[in-house]
Amino acid sequence: MITAGLLLLTIGIADLARQFLGRGSRSARIGASVAVVLLVAVLGTAIVAWPLAVAFAVIALAWLALMPSTKDAAVASFWPVVGLAAAVVAFVVGSPATAEGWMAMDAAGSVAFGKAVLALGVACFLLESANIVVRVALQSERSDAAVVVATAPAVRRGLIGRLRRPAPPEPTVPTKQLRGGRLIGPLERLFVVGLIFTSAVALLAAFIAAKGIVRFPEIQKDNAGGTQAEYFLVGSMASWAIALAAAGLLWAVGATPADLRIS
Q: Are 61 and 34 a contacting pair, CB within 8 Å?
């Protein structure tokens, strides 16, 4: 359980470092991320056995190599996400709570500490790493839409065999769109996890309905054949699925709000 939390914490901090600390070249972003992974792995040897620390460091480095950041314009696949989910489940099910060391404590204390570390790792992963997963889903959807547009005929034949030019697009009025998705997404996921974690199902339903109402005018004005609505649905469903998986992970280990306070 602690190892799973350290794995998510390492990936989350490394992705944050890749996004915010390495503002310069791509090598600077990679260097900052690798430094974070190695630092957390070294510190993790005081909490878990060193083979487990090496294991989650290798998984975190593989994640950084296979999942692109915002500035690295590459389309990744979902296999790293599946592999990370399998690794987290394996660590939760099979790894010991703590190793013998300065962090060793009694059974009850170690369990509470493990749940707190897991919750911290989940929260850190939801900040930037989940944004990358949602972005991969949206990029794959965009690539599929681009293929459809590329294969569509540019002109159509009339009844007498002459080529008919497509109708010119109607002029659109430029609108100012909010660009706070990088901040709204993490806040939304943390809020959803908190509502699920506290069994506030009614508030969760009201929140989802409110988001749909707020975005409805933008979707209604979509002149691109419904792509904006599909974009909204894919992004929202991917984000909510990550939040649901995070809440399910905390529920599976029996975490409660009281367990997340370490005295």
A: yes
Closest CA to 215 of 196, 239, 243: 239
DSSP H helices in 26-165: 26-44, 50-66, 79-94, 107-127, 129-151
The sign one gets for the Cα dihedral 97, 260, 90, 59 is: negative
- Residue 156, classed as helix, strand or coil, is strand
Residue 24's pLDDT band (boundaries 50, 70, 90)? low
Instruction: Give the per-residue pLDDT at 225.
Output: 59
Quick check: 92 and 252 in contact, CB under 8 A?
yes
Taking the CA atoms of residue 38, residue 255, residue 110 and residue 122 in that order, the dihedral angle to the nearest 10 degrees is 10
Measured between alpha carbons, how far is 136 from 228 in angstroms, rounded to an integer? 17
In this prediction the pTM is: 0.75
Task: Determine contact, residues 121/9, Cβ cutoff 8 Å.
Answer: yes
